[in-house]
């Protein structure tokens, strides 16, 4: 929701913010700063916005960035929460046009969950479609079993 809300507030092109383009990089620090201001005022702001008006038996919430986000979902939804971390090697990320930006990629918004969270699932996405599919199928079977 941070990108969507920032888009609405600042008139940015949401589709262009989804890739690793220069457009995204130009606005990324401003989006991070805007998100931090919102979180300081209300730590649950983005989480509540993400689930507002929706009810379903399973939630897949992608791209949480901070321990406070994970804690919010655990506090609100309890034991039904399953945390999933998707990882890729730095080499894979570079092949996907990622370039480390000092002050951005080492900020909490990018690495706030690198420590202090025990994930229920860790999915490796290094470009092996078969391996990725197998991991996702295992995750889906587990989630279906919880319904």
UniProtKB/TrEMBL annotation:
Pathway: Isoprenoid biosynthesis; isopentenyl diphosphate biosynthesis via mevalonate pathway; isopentenyl diphosphate from (R)-mevalonate: step 2/3
UniProt record, GO biological process: cholesterol biosynthetic process; isopentenyl diphosphate biosynthetic process, mevalonate pathway
GO CC annotation terms, alphabetical: cytosol
Organism domain of life: Eukaryota
EC numbers on record: 2.7.4.2
Pfam families reported in the protein's UniProt record: P-mevalo_kinase
Subcellular location(s) per record: Cytoplasm, Cytosol
Signal peptide span: none
Gene3D superfamilies, per database record: P-loop containing nucleotide triphosphate hydrolases (3.40.50.300)
Keywords: ATP-binding, Cholesterol biosynthesis, Cholesterol metabolism, Cytoplasm, Kinase, Lipid biosynthesis, Lipid metabolism, Nucleotide-binding, Steroid biosynthesis, Steroid metabolism, Sterol biosynthesis, Sterol metabolism, Transferase
One Gene Ontology MF term: phosphomevalonate kinase activity
Chief location of this protein within or outside the cell: cytoplasm
Name listed for the protein in its UniProt record: Phosphomevalonate kinase
